[in-house]
Design goal:
alpha/beta, 17 helices, about 650 residues, Immunoglobulin-like, about 15% strand
């Protein structure tokens, strides 16, 4: 074991993590059930453990010390001692090097071997034997950072929700094949900050990019052994560290530069964050961080069988949102990304899992309470994926004021209508007008609905009109993975075709779907590449495809210049007409003394819809007359907002 040679001072229990103060580094780690904690220091390459320092001070269950000689760039990890009692929820194993949950930078990949597991694989699931091999060689290392950065005049755009147009993209996939971006910058934060990338976003009229997960994550062993990768990144292991794979320079300042550059272009940055589970998986997973630090505090365990985890996520574990230190971890992470990294909002993956108190989803739970009273977090954009995989997890429409939601019912209704199914007019009407049935009762506005037809999870727009069945063979799961009910229509032929009539029909269907999305009340979200015909060849679950199947093909996209121009015109139309961006729900009555209803539903004959019309299952045509003088809104200077009368026809 390396000998302790560094000068060590007691340090402080706050802030958690490794903090450089200009003279030295304070280290602080929470563990309620640990008996002893060691700070492990490594050489510059992270290959050799050079010192192991006992953290002798413990305050309020936080272990801490201060190294006056330490500097930014230092690589470190922890070893945590405690009972090896898996049946009691305590699988402590000091042979396993552990990542700091508060690490601001994590470097190096996971090199998979059995040594990364806290138990001896093959020793028997009923009575697992402790694995005594040192895991340090195969583990990434935490790196102390100097947070200094020149933000200059950076200011958040603060685009109002009703004016927001979201573009969901993958940092790597967006630029990995872009011919106008330097090869060394493709697929990186720096690449996203280049002129060709930003010019495309500005040409469209995008106001916010929603980045798929950029928290440090790992590739599952089963994927690596198949030659695949966890491309999407919903496998977090560090909630403070931007994933180093996307940094051309290797340092976190690159992420800050990206944000600053996007802000200067008037584009907000929203992060897709995964706080519901970690990459450690179920009870048979590796020991990488929280499991080895304090498993019983950080994770939700089955009360009558504490070796096993409650799994509301489908990923093997669920973080314990009932523990104050877990809530603190998440809130500290969120504040860090806003205050230190200048991001503008968050999309919470499987947000229902975060809202569970004992078992049920509670929209008045501690998670929401803390965010609502926080002067920082309450002022940024908050988007919920309003479901998880547990009982009662589907919560579309049930999140509290201050939150927006991915509206899965919007996606389903629009897809089903344009697929040609009957009996959809009533449902479609609600979705086109902001989903008042979901959001008005709680005092929310139309912009609580994040409208989308496609997203990363499922078909691209082109594939939605080209495939009726998923084609996920490349995932090496015998096409068992991925959603079976896609509400898609291939227009007559499965997949690629040279039939010009089918191709024309598909093009028309793409325009129908895009026009519906961008002219609906609520906040539209586009999937990156849909505007230029991106395809995944029918794969509706490309989570493991870090290759050309997922990356945007910019060269082929040149053939889709008409579709690109069409999307741009739709966005310009939306921005020019406030009647498409209402801040209040329609009332269906005469307002402002104009003599016309704010919204009138019309049949194909131009007559106002009657109750009998709405009940006709064969009726598929619909008209919406939007009264521009029926707006009851004011501009920032208190002046009434008025617009033209606009007629939308769906046929």
């Amino acid at each position: 074991m390396p000998k302790h040679a560094a000068t060590v001072w007691p340090g402080q229990p706050y802030p958690l993590g490794a903090t450089w103060d200009g003279e030295g580094v304070n280290f602080a780690l929470f563990s309620e059930h640990a008996e002893r904690v060691e700070l492990c220091l490594f050489d510059r390459r992270g290959r050799r453990e050079i010192e192991r320092i006992p953290m002798r001070r413990r305050t309020n269950q936080v272990w801490h010390c201060y190294l006056p000689e330490a500097r930014p760039g230092l690589l470190y990890g922890y070893r945590v001692h405690g009972p090896y009692a898996p049946d009691d929820g305590h699988p402590f194993n000091p042979n396993k090097l552990l990542l700091d949950p508060y690490a601001k930078d994590i470097v190096g990949p996971v090199l998979w071997s059995d040594a990364l597991f806290g138990y001896r694989i093959g020793s028997g699931a009923q009575d697992p034997v402790m694995d005594r091999r040192n895991s340090a060689r195969g583990m990434p290392k935490c790196r102390v950072i100097d947070p200094a950065f020149t933000w200059g005049e950076d200011r958040p755009p603060r685009t109002p929700w009703h004016d927001t147009i979201i573009y969901e993209l993958h940092v790597k996939g967006f630029t990995a094949r872009h011919p106008e971006i330097a090869p060394s910058l493709r697929g990186t934060y720096a690449g996203l900050a280049t002129a060709p990338a930003i010019d495309h976003l500005r040409y469209l009229g995008i106001t916010a990019v929603e980045l798929m997960p950029v928290h440090a994550f790992i590739d599952d062993r089963r994927l690596v052994e198949k030659g695949l990768r966890n491309y999407w990144g919903y496998n977090s292991i560090g909630f403070f560290a931007p994933d180093a794979r996307y940094a051309a320079s290797g340092y976190i300042g690159e992420f800050k530069t990206m944000v600053k550059t996007l802000h200067s272009a008037g584009i907000e940055v929203i992060l897709d964050v995964v706080y519901n589970h970690t990459a450690e998986g179920n009870h048979l997973g590796p020991t990488l961080s929280l499991r080895g630090i304090d498993n019983a505090s950080y994770y939700r365990l089955v009360s009558e069988d504490r070796r096993h985890y409650m799994d509301y996520t489908g990923c093997g574990n669920t973080l314990n949102m009932m523990h104050p230190r877990v809530l603190q971890l998440i809130m500290d992470s969120l504040r860090y990304w806003v205050l230190e990294m200048h991001v503008d909002g968050f999309r919470f993956d499987l947000a229902s899992a975060l809202a569970r108190e004992l078992h049920a989803v509670d929209r008045l739970g501690a998670f929401f309470d803390i965010i609502h009273q926080d002067p920082v977090l309450s002022q940024v954009k908050l988007i919920a994926e309003p479901w998880d995989l547990g009982e009662g997890g589907y919560q579309v429409g049930n999140f509290p004021i201050g939150w927006t939601e991915w509206n899965g019912r919007y996606r389903d209704a629009v897809r089903t209508y344009w697929k040609g199914d009957g009996g959809m007019l009533g449902e479609l009407a609600s979705r086109l007008t902001g989903s008042s049935d979901l959001y008005e009762h709680s005092g929310r506005r139309p912009y609580a609905s994040i409208n989308f037809v496609t997203c990363h999870d499922g078909y691209t727009l082109r594939d939605l009109v080209s495939y009726e069945h998923k084609h996920n063979e490349a995932n090496l799961e015998e096409n068992r993975d991925g959603e079976n009910d896609n509400r898609s229509w291939n227009c007559g032929v499965e997949g690629r075709t040279q039939n010009r009539h089918i191709r024309a029909l598909r093009d028309r269907q793409k325009r129908n779907l895009l026009a519906t999305l961008l002219l609906s009340q609520g906040v539209p979200m586009l999937l990156a590449g849909d505007e230029i015909g991106r395809t995944q060849q029918g794969n509706n679950n490309a989570y493991c495809q870090d290759n050309e199947l997922s990356w945007i093909d910019w060269e082929s996209a040149r053939q889709e210049h008409e579709l690109l121009a069409f999307v741009r015109k739709l966005i310009r139309l939306r921005k020019h007409h406030p009647v498409f961006r209402r801040r209040c729900f329609f009332e269906g009555r005469i307002v402002n003394g104009s003599g016309a209803k704010d919204l009138t539903w019309l049949t194909s004959a131009g007559l106002e819809m009657t109750g009998d019309d709405w009940r006709r299952p064969d009726l598929r045509n619909l008209g919406l007359l939007l009264a521009g003088d029926g707006l009851i809104e004011e501009d920032p200077r208190g002046r009434p907002v008025r617009d033209d009368n606009l007629l939308l026809l769906l046929n």
